């Protein structure tokens, strides 16, 4: 391979190679033997220009590379047919005009992408804010019913207290009224017992009278 040619030539003190890896390019292979050196130098020149453009351009494009490739093709045709190629100045002007249009289109696309990204980010933030608000409302709603329940419980307790007091008062009144009823019952029972005793006495008297009459 070509990278080993130079160290080998230096070691053996032989002739150093005239060309490097670029000598194996297809452009040089298509050229005649007498033109291989010239086309290789020309190709190396265009490669250095392309590398500098790629290094210092803000938006990399393939316009300059295509134009430089066309120049190499035109140079090969010139070596074979003698047709004069275009001048480098003309080619670079055309490349600058096309590159400006391409760069403008690329920037437009980048701006659109940036706008879309910002819109997505804005929507995402709005969605997060809405979700946070919903969560806060849900927490507030969860807390309010508890408070209301507590209030309701307190109100029920307050309402039940008068009812209980009323029931207690009624029970007390019933208890107060109960003794007279019991007294009445006791009095009725006593009257019934007296009547029964009187009837028993009368029956005894009748029996005694009947016995006395029989004895006579």
UniProtKB/TrEMBL annotation:
Pfam families: Nop. InterPro entries: Nop56/Nop58 (IPR045056), Nop_C (IPR042239), Nop_dom (IPR002687), Nop_dom_sf (IPR036070). SUPFAM superfamilies: Nop domain (SSF89124). Residues 1-81 form the Nop domain. Residues 134-145 have a biased composition (Basic and acidic residues). GO terms for cellular component: box C/D methylation guide snoRNP complex; small-subunit processome. Residues 105-216 are annotated as: Disordered. Residues 158-177 have a biased composition (Acidic residues). GO terms for molecular function: snoRNA binding. Part of a large pre-ribosomal ribonucleoprotein (RNP) complex, that consists of at least 62 ribosomal proteins, 45 nonribosomal proteins and both pre-rRNA and mature rRNA species. Within this complex directly interacts with TCOF1 in an RNA-independent manner. Core component of box C/D small nucleolar ribonucleoprotein (snoRNP) particles; the core proteins SNU13, NOP56, NOP58 and FBL or FBLL1 assemble stepwise onto the snoRNA. Interacts with NOP1 and NOP58. Interacts with NUFIP1, RUVBL1 and RUVBL2; RUVBL1:RUVBL2 seem to bridge the association of NOP56 with NUFIP1. Involved in the early to middle stages of 60S ribosomal subunit biogenesis. Required for the biogenesis of box C/D snoRNAs such U3, U8 and U14 snoRNAs. Part of the small subunit (SSU) processome, first precursor of the small eukaryotic ribosomal subunit. During the assembly of the SSU processome in the nucleolus, many ribosome biogenesis factors, an RNA chaperone and ribosomal proteins associate with the nascent pre-rRNA and work in concert to generate RNA folding, modifications, rearrangements and cleavage as well as targeted degradation of pre-ribosomal RNA by the RNA exosome. PANTHER family: NUCLEOLAR PROTEIN 5 NUCLEOLAR PROTEIN NOP5 NOP58, NUCLEOLAR PROTEIN 56. This is Nucleolar protein 5A. It comes from Centropus bengalensis (lesser coucal).
């Amino acid at each position: 391979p070509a990278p080993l040619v130079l160290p080998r030539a230096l070691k053996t003190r032989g002739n150093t190679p005239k060309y490097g890896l670029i000598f194996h390019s297809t452009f040089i292979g298509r050229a005649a033997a007498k033109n291989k050196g010239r086309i290789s130098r020309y190709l190396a020149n265009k490669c250095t220009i392309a590398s500098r453009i790629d290094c210092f351009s803000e938006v990399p494009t393939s316009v300059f590379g295509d134009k430089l490739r066309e120049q190499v093709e035109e140079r090969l045709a010139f070596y074979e047919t003698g047709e004069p190629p275009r001048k480098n100045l003309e080619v670079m002007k055309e490349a600058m005009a096309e590159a400006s249009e391409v760069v403008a289109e690329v920037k437009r696309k980048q701006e659109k992408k940036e706008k879309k990204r910002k819109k997505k980010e804005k929507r995402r933030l709005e969605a997060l804010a809405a979700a946070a608000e919903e969560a806060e409302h849900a927490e507030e709603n969860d807390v309010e019913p508890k408070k209301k329940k507590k209030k309701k419980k307190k109100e029920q307790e307050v309402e039940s207290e008068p009812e209980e007091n009323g029931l207690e008062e009624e029970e007390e009144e019933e208890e107060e009224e109960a003794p007279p009823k019991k007294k009445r019952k006791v009095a009725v029972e006593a009257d019934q017992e007296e009547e029964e005793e009187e009837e028993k006495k009368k029956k005894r008297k009748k029996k005694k009278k009947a016995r006395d009459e029989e004895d006579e």
